[in-house]
Amino acid sequence: MPAKGRAEVQDQEALDLAADWSDISQGLRKDLGQQLHNQWIRPIQLGGFCKETGTLDLYLPTEFSANWVADRFADRLSLAWKIARPEVRHVRISVQPGRRALPELRIARDNGAPAPSLRKVEDAPQSRGMGMTATAETLNPDAVGLASIGLDPSLTFTTFVTGTSNVLACNAAQRMAALEAPQFSPLYLKAATGQGKTHLMHAIGHAFLANHPRARIFYCSAERFMVEFVQALRQNQMIEFKARLRGFDLLMIDDIQFIIGKASAQEELLYTIDALLAEGKRLVFAADRAPQALDGVEQRLLSRLSMGLVADIQPADIELRRAVLEHRLSRFASVGVPNDVVEFLARTINRNVRELVGGLNKLIAYAQLTGQPVSLQLAEDQLTDILSANRKRITIDEIQRTVCQFYRVDRTEMASKRRARAVVRPRQVAMYLAKVLTPRSYPEIGRKFGGRDHSTVIHAVRLIEDLRTRDADIDGDVRSLLRQLES
After folding, report:
1. How far apart are alpha carbons 125 and 197 in whole angstroms?
2. Which NCBIfam families does this entry report, sorted A to Z (predicted)?
3. Does domain 318-390 have CATH number 1.10.8.60?
């Protein structure tokens, strides 16, 4: 088979696997619930499929998460894949290949002999930040930091798009990484999933190392902190663990809401915070809720977490979502994405920025792999799961009622045959909004407007799209109606 033909076959196989995984993942979300699915199933990445052995690889970002999923969900995943694709006989769950191991941190004993080193930790430079990260090869104050370990090079302040919902947190993060000592510490970033708190933590790490090239930083998730603490406890290496933690100039712990239950680990973190603050070191924490709302966390630790600045990142508004998409598209200059698709994604995928960017990436990848142009129809067809999860359930009846109130026309005019301009334009706007805000097809929309043909609806949608680019009044009307319907 020619190379081009093989490539096309491989692309199609990859698309088929991705489609099957989307169905399996959605089924597991219904079975396991949103929280378990988000924490353990959603981070899974598809690997290769070996037809000879019938083995499919599934990858997770860390050894801890891979072991957890393998222990608890391996049978369920294997069964689901066998049902969806009988040729899959084995499912292998492991850590994403290509992870770099961190250098061992050796701490000299009083007699000069090196102490037993801490276990090497898999580095996971993912946006979720599951790996423990250090930038020093030793705890020697004169050691030069290894600036790139564990920080995603794409997550910097330059690539962080700001708006009214996140500007405070971004400014506070920049201050934390500045040359001069910040006026507050710790910095506590509070945001729902996918709103940018992990991005800011990576950005702080990059900027701090740029301003302090000899600095030592420590970045991990609360989950990994707990794992490392328990391992040090079991291996009788608590002295080394404490020295390691307190030898860093910047300590960053993500997803602090997971540091619950283990009183001794919380106490150790409390003492570490006190020790670092006493030495003027910098601390950053992130969670999906405010410190006072953390369950199972000791009161003394809560007071330390909230004693600096708690910066809240609100859900991205429509303007910020547009800006994020435009910024992302600047990286795909060769891919043409129409303005109506950008507007559609910005309005429809409104739960979090991570889903928004993921939806755009999926759409562009599909278009490139299949050779299809990016269009509104393609977005609706390929992003069904994301769109349905984000859509507010707006009905065509609600749209008609709102449009009639806005233009002060009788509701019966939506289905009437009258061709007066004062009636036709509101009817066309309502059809356009029905297509943008509901999952209904053109024929279904036509039936709701007096049994009109689908070609009439298509004409109305395209006309309003065109008028919005040329007529400021029409664009203002549509924007106002969108705000009313989405509020």
Report:
1. 15
2. DnaA
3. yes
Q: Where are the alpha helices (DSSP H) in 247-335?
A: 263-278, 299-305, 318-329
**126, 24, 34: which is closest to 389 by C-alpha?**
34
- Tell me whether residue 282 is exposed, middle or buried, using C-beta atoms within 10 angstroms of its C-beta: 0 to 12, 13 to 18, 19 or more: buried
Structure tokens at 121: 């930790």
Q: Which pTM was predicted?
A: 0.55
Token pair belonging to 73: 């969900």
pLDDT digits (tens, 9 = 90+) for 264-289: 788 888 988 999 998 889 999 999 88
CA distance 404 to 413: 9
Q: Are 231 and 266 contacting, i.e. CB atoms less than 8 angstroms apart?
A: no
CATH entry 3.30.300.180 includes domain 3-95: yes
Give me the residues paired with residue 91 across strands. 56
pLDDT single digits (tens) 314-364 = 989 889 999 999 998 887 766 788 888 898 899 888 888 988 988 898 888
Given a contact cutoff of 8 angstroms between Cβ atoms, the answer to whether 164 and 317 are in contact is yes
Q: How far apart are CA 252 and CA 360, in angstroms?
A: 30
Domain 3-95 matches domain 396-486 at the CATH topology level:
no
Joined tokens for residue 466: 């065109």
Q: Write the burial class of residue 148 (CB in 10 Å: 0-12 exposed, 13-18 middle, 19+ buried).
A: middle
pLDDT tens per residue, range 160-185: 999 999 999 999 999 999 999 888 88
List binding-site positions for ATP. 194, 196-198
Q: What is the DSSP string of 212-268?
A: -TT--EEEEEHHHHHHHHHHHHHTT-HHHHHHHHHT-SEEEEE-GGG--S-HHHHHH
Residues flagged as binding site: 194, 196-198
Chain mean position to CA 299: 30
| Among the listed residues 381, 312, 376, the one whose alpha carbon sits nearest the alpha carbon of residue 346 | 376
Q: Measured between alpha carbons, how far is 11 from 277 in angstroms, rounded to an integer?
A: 53
